[in-house]
What does this fold into?
Amino acid sequence: MCGARLPLLVGMVWCAVADVGAAEVKITGGGEYKDRKGIHVRAYSTFPSLVRLAEGRLLCYDMASQDGGRTWSRYQEFGFPLSDATRPHRGSITTLQDGEVLLVGRYTRKHERDADIYVAEIYRSRNHFAGYTGPTRALIHVPSAVAGTDEYGMPVSGPFFEQSIVELPGGDLLACMWGWCESDQTPSGYPDRWEKWRLKKSRTLLVRSKDRGDTWHYLATIAADPDAGPEGFRLPSLGLLPDGELLCLMRNGDGAMPLWLGRSRGDYTQWEKPEKINAPAVFGELLVLSDGTVLLAFGKPLYVMASGDGGRTWGSEHKMGIGTRTGQAFTGRVTLVEVSPGQVVCVYNDVLDLHARVLTVTSE
It folds into this structure.
């Protein structure tokens, strides 16, 4: 159940940044803004969303790249049906193994009859986004979930879908959500947010779909500990390693607070104690490359660093800075996509525009 305590409690342990494993992974292609490697993608966007279509094209809202992120142009007469124009209409996007593109809305609402079911809108495209269908309703079964307040102080009726959707080899989908259950009553560690918004410490959940996203069922609580951090675990990002281990990156605090990393194997119902990563950030994004290397984008200024051992150690000495016009990338969101082995496109907010960097990741 959503409100149940896991037998593995969250520990307050710093994840060591070692010089082995991940230290052999190097990233190039970042640098300062003045080096002219920042590639303009889209104007007046604050929440980058990026997907690689089955035929290789990159799509970022209404902009597309056919050369691995080096140039961008307008795609068709429309972009994603879930745009970043307003916060409630953001969503998660992924390309499934058979080429279908699935979009799931971030915000959920209560089902009109069943108290344990929440509803999100979904869209699908089966023709490389030449068109799409939707919205239709996805049903999310999360027993004991309750209403709360989002990170902007707005009241919400249920848990949020967050960015990552992972497809397992057999076709089942995993997604992470964050929100509150009946037992989550601890006030936020930020007194002003508790007084103004009644912001409670949150938890991160894992849900699973066996029908390509039409229905989702609660699978596990990834992390929930009112004593670990000022705001609870939220804004998660999933990554699936080649050996089947599942990683979940989370934040638990605003500003320069460290990120947290949890991991699970088997049926993903039991999770190890999340560990802090020495990566101070408002937000972070995980990406598992085709060779198993794990990338982490984080921070303000923005950095990308790598791990060659499944996220247990990080090569911070080889982290790559991503320069922007102001010297500080907006840390609300950043996205990473691998376009070919060792070639990664990073899209991030630069003032009020989206920019991209084409990164090369090599192991030595």
Observations:
- The helical segments are 191-197.
- The domain at 14-363 is CATH 2.120.10.10 (Neuraminidase).
